[in-house]
Every structure is written in C-alpha cells, then in structure tokens.
C-alpha cells in the first residue's frame, strides 16, 4: 500500500508466540531447523541413493549385454547383405559379354560398342530386377572412358573429379579386391540427378568397385563400379528397436561413416568423432561410458564379419536413469510426508524470523530493480528490525542523491543549450550592418528597409532565450529573412524553394537550426551567384518523426569531406551567421532528443548535396 507521499509501504506485523515477544535469534532458528532435517531425512536419502545406484548399475549391465547381442546380429545381417552385393558385382564383372567388350573395346566402332552395351544392360537389368537399391552400374575403361551399363542415361550419377580419381586409384592398388566407399551428396556433381536424389532421400550412397581381369592373365581390363543407395542401410537400421534416442553407426577402417540412424549428428562419409573411438577402444570395464552431445551415453561396438567394418551404438544413459527413478518413488513419497511434519515443526521459528527476512529481501529486490520509492515497515526491536530501519534510511539518502543529480543534469543541459544558442558570429553582423550603411548612401530607402527588416527578424528570434523551440512555419519565415539578406548582400540570383507538409506547420523545431545548413548550401554548394543554383528545403514526416532535407545542386562533396564535417571542432573559423556549424547542429539535436536523432549527409561530387535532419514530431508552446 502507498502512504500519503506516494511511497509504497511493506508492512510486517510483529509475531508473538504464547502471548509474549519471541527472543529467538536467526542462528537459533537455523540450528533447530537444520537438526530436524538432518535427523529425519539423511538416513532415507542415503537408502534412496544406494538403491538407485544398485538399480542403475544392474540395468546398465543388462542393457550392455542385450545391445551387444543385438549389434552382433546387426553385424551378421550387414555382412550377409554386403556379401550378396559383392557376389552380384562379381557376376556382372565376369559376364562373358562384358569381358568381351573390355577386350575388344578399342577395336569396335561406336555403334558396335552401343550394341554390346545394350545387351549387357539387359542382362544386368534381369539380375537386378529384384534389387531396387542398386541404381547404377558403370564401366571404366583403361583410358578413363565411362560406360553406363545400368541406370538413368539421361541424368547420370557423377562424383566430383577428385573423389572419382581417388576411388579408381584405390581399386588399382587393391589388386583385385573389392573396394567399398560411402559418399554423401556434397561429394557428387551438382545437377538434376543430384537434386532428384536429394528430394527422394537417395543422395547418399555406397560405391562397390572392383577391377575386371583377363581370364587367362592378371591383366586389368577395366573397373566395374556399382552404386547402392545408403537408404537401404538407413531404413534397415531404423527398424531396429534400440530404445529412445539410441543411435547406431556403421563405419569402415578409415573411421568414415557408412550409414547411421541420425544423419544430422553423424553425416555420411564424415570421420567418426575420435573421442568416441578412443573411449570404446580404451575402456576397461564391461560397460563403457562417454559424454557426447551434452549427454552421457553407453557405448557398444562390434565388428562386421568378413569385412573391415564396425557397428557402433550409443544408448543415452539418462533414459535408463529415468527408469531407475521409478523404483525409488515410494521413498520420495515417504520423504514428502516427513517434509510436511518438519514444516509443521519449524513453523513457529519461521513465523518469528523467516517472514521479516523474506519481507526485507523482497524489498531489496524491488530496490535492486531501480525502484527506490518504497518504505519497509518493521517496528520489532531485534536485529532484523534495526536492519530494516537502516535500509529505509539508505533508500531515503539514495532518493535525495538522485533528485540532486537530476537537478544538476537539467541545469547543465540548460547551460549547454544557452551556450550553443549564444554563439553569434559578429563578423556576419558587422558585414551586414556595413552593407546596410553603404546601401543607404547609394540606393533607395526601400531596399534598406527590406534588408533591415529581415535582419531585425533574425536578431529578434536569435536573442529570444525564452523559447528554444518554434514552429516550422516560423522557422521558414526566419530562414527566408536570412536568404533575403544573402541575396542583397551578394547580389545573388539563386533559386530558393520551400516544401512544407501542411500538417507539420505547427510542429516544433529548435529555432534557427536550419540557417547553418542553408548557409552551407549557399556558400559551399551553389556559390550564391550561380544563376542556375537551386536550394530546396523540404519538410515531411508522420506522427512520430519529422525529416527535413536541404538539397542543393552545387559542386557536392567527397566522402572525406563528409567525414570531416563531424570531426571539426566547435571553434573552427566559419563564416556563418550563428557560428554553430553543422557539427554543433548535430550535437544540439542529439542533446535535445537523444542519439537516435541527428544529421545525415548524402552527396555526389559535382552533382548535389542533401543534408537530412531527423527530429521527433513535437507539439506545444515552444518551451523545452
């Protein structure tokens, strides 16, 4: 609740037990509460922890044994499937038609090669009619030609050149032994075939390659390459139930991943994390554990029979731990009821000491967030009451200091604004008055009247310190007075245009803030006497912000000149009416409205310069 001064009050009524003021201290409450908790809960907690650990170890051992047996079955199935595919590749490699094509390839015409290739294609199609996972079969001749024996001839499967050369080189080095390599979509040439395979989920593959040898010698006649969809292994592995979030990975002797149940964590043909391999190979206990991906896992590995592949499995241990917790639920329920009894036992001590501490802590939390307009009420004579009253005194002192800082900051800002507005260039006033004197001697009185009227208007608004803000309509009137003075002084013929959005006429702008911008455009832009010179002042905006642009078609500025504008010191020698300059205008805007507002300059050398001023849309009486 709030008091008459608007400050929020946090009340605490003194708690009396058995009709008299309690004399217990905070340390007494802590000691008694601690002994209650220790005596009643520690034995049950120890029993629960021992039960949990024993159950977890037993479950880990059972899961490790079950997973090992299952991986052996997986390994046997992988070995059997690969053996079947190797036999298919061997049958194709020693087809009489293919062997004859390899022997006579360089003596045949292209038409004869195509005819024999079509016959081979028919035989391979018959052999692979029941196997949809083998999608492409290629023949590489000794001079590097590639013949498509099976698969899509229109949209061919192609490896990137470096991977194709690596594969063929390894086949030559293996001296007739089969070569098995996994490849991801990133290792294949971009094209329609790759896009189609990625869309269908068949981009990853395994290439089975072997050399074709002459029947009567060990001469190599060519290389046969057979493409198998990795999806075959992926679908097969995902049908195996290893438990929630368990992962299975197949990798070769190079630790390159052949297939996995999670392509995001274990992409095809990437190197298996060395941490996993080191943990599995160096683990001494039956149950090998490792931390991976922010979780603890059980790691199991087995070899694939007949080939240098391995099958690896990661089972998250937190899934097993959650099962173990079910066993100790009864103990937790028991602890819950014991906790209720403890809560009743220490209620008296809590009423005496805890509530005032909580009240004080909550109040400190509110003050920590920057709200110092509060008062904490606690009239008890103990240490907490004295601390509360000291806290109230600290808050009162902070409020006084904040008020003093705000007052000093306001005075400082007013002094800075007054200093900026007071910077009037006496050189400009002297030249203008001297010009008026000369005109009085040589010209008609009406010219003198016009220029003196404009000068008086400018001096009137410049010296009026009562208002720092004026309307856009007034600002343009005073700006036009300045322009008229420049026209008479320099006999200038430039074109000056104003475009004020009607609904912004009564919006406020810091007074005389456009004059230095226009002066810069006339002096350094169109150069005053240029008959084709033009300066356009445009005011647009919405209910939030106003954009004022001053554009001239003069000589423009280079980028280094634009950068120099905001690096000049405030006391630079400038021939300007106010002496403020562009930098001071920018600082004045930021001082008034914040860093989000200010000046932006855009210019193309020898073409144009646009200076944009951004200020908030304000309405009022001009006092700021």
What is the number of helical segments per DSSP (H or I, 4+ residues)? 17
Q: What structural class do helix, strand and pairing data support?
A: alpha+beta
Strand content: 15-25%
Count all strands and give the number: 21
Provide the number of structural domains.
Answer: 3
Shape: flat
Largest sheet: 5 strands, antiparallel
Notes on the protein architecture:
This protein is α+β, with helices and mostly antiparallel strands and 624 residues long. The protein folds into three domains: 21-344, no CATH class; 346-417; 422-616, Heat Shock Protein 90. Helices cover 50% and strands 20% of the residues. It has 17 helices and 21 strands. The chain has helices spanning 26-93, 96-104, 110-127, 161-173, 192-200, 231-238, 274-282, 317-327, 329-345, 347-368, 383-421, 426-442, 445-463, 472-490, 515-525, 559-565, 581-593; strands at residues 8-11, 16-17, 20-21, 134-140, 146-150, 179-183, 205-213, 220-229, 247-252, 257-260, 288-292, 295-303, 309-316, 374-377, 469-471, 495-500, 508-510, 534-541, 545-552, 598-604, 608-616. The strands form six sheets. A five-stranded antiparallel beta sheet has the order 5-4-8-7-6, sandwiched between helices. A five-stranded antiparallel beta sheet has the order 10-9-13-12-11. A hairpin with a 4-residue loop joins strand 9 (247-252) and strand 10 (257-260). Helix 1 (26-93) packs antiparallel against helix 9 (329-345), helix 10 (347-368) packs parallel to helix 11 (383-421) and helix 12 (426-442) packs antiparallel against helix 13. The chain is flat. The relative contact order is 0.08.
């Amino acid at each position: 609740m709030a008091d008459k001064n608007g400050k929020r009050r946090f009340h605490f009524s003194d708690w009396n037990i058995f009709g008299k003021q309690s004399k217990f201290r905070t340390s007494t409450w802590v000691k008694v509460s601690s002994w209650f908790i220790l005596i009643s809960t520690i034995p049950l907690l120890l029993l629960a922890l021992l039960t949990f650990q024993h159950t977890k170890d037993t479950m880990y051992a059972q899961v490790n044994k079950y997973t090992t047996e299952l991986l052996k079955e997986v390994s046997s199935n992988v070995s059997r499937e690969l053996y079947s595919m190797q036999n298919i590749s061997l049958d194709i490699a020693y087809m009489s038609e293919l062997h004859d094509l390899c022997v006579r390839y360089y003596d045949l015409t292209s038409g004869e090669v195509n005819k024999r290739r079509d016959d081979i294609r028919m035989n391979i199609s018959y052999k692979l009619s029941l196997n949809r996972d083998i999608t492409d079969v290629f023949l590489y001749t000794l001079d590097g030609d590639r013949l498509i024996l099976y698969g899509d001839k229109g949209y061919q499967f192609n490896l990137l050149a470096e991977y194709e050369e690596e594969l063929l080189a390894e086949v030559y080095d293996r001296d007739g032994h089969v070569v098995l390599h996994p490849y991801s979509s990133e290792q294949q040439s971009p094209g329609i075939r790759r896009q189609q395979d990625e869309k269908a989920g068949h981009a990853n593959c395994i290439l089975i390659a072997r050399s074709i040898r002459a029947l009567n010698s060990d001469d190599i006649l060519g290389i046969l390459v057979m493409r198998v969809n990795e999806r075959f292994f992926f679908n097969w592995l995902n049908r195996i139930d290893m438990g929630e979030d368990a992962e299975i990975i197949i990798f070769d002797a190079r630790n390159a991943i052949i297939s996995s149940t999670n392509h995001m964590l274990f992409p095809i043909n990437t190197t298996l994390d060395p941490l996993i391999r080191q943990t599995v190979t160096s683990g001494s206990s039956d149950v090998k554990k490792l931390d991976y991906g922010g979780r603890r896992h059980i790691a199991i590995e087995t070899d694939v029979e007949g080939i240098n592949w391995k099958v690896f499995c990661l089972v998250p241990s937190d899934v097993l731990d959650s099962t173990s917790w079910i066993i100790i639920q009864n103990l937790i329920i028991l602890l819950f009821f014991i906790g209720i009894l403890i809560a009743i036992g220490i209620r008296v001590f809590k009423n005496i000491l805890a509530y005032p501490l909580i009240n004080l802590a909550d109040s400190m939390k509110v003050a920590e967030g920057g709200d110092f307009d509060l008062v904490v009420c606690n009239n008890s004579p103990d240490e907490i009451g004295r601390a509360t009253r000291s806290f109230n005194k600290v808050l009162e002192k902070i409020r006084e200091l904040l008020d003093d800082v705000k007052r000093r900051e306001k005075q400082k800002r007013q002094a800075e604004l007054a200093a900026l507005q007071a910077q009037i260039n006496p050189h400009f006033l002297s030249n203008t008055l001297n010009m008026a004197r000369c005109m009085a001697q040589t010209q008609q009185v009406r010219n003198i009247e016009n220029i003196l009227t404009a000068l008086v208007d400018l001096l009137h608004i410049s010296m009026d310190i009562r208002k720092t803000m004026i309307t856009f309509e007034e600002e343009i009137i005073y700006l036009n007075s300045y322009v008229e003075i420049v026209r008479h002084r320099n006999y200038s013929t430039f074109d000056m245009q104003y475009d004020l959005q009607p609904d912004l006429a009564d919006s406020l702008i810091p007074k005389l803030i456009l004059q230095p911008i226009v002066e810069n455009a006339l002096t350094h832009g169109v150069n005053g006497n240029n008959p084709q010179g033009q300066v356009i002042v445009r005011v647009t905006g919405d209910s939030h912000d106003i954009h004022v642009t001053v554009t001239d078609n003069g000589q423009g500025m280079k980028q280094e000149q634009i950068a120099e504008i905001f690096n000049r010191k405030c006391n630079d020698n400038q021939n300007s009416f106010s002496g403020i300059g562009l930098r001071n205008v920018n600082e004045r805007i930021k001082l008034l409205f914040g860093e989000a507002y200010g000046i932006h300059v855009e210019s193309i050398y020898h073409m144009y310069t646009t200076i944009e001023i951004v200020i908030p849309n304000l309405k009022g009486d001009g006092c700021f």
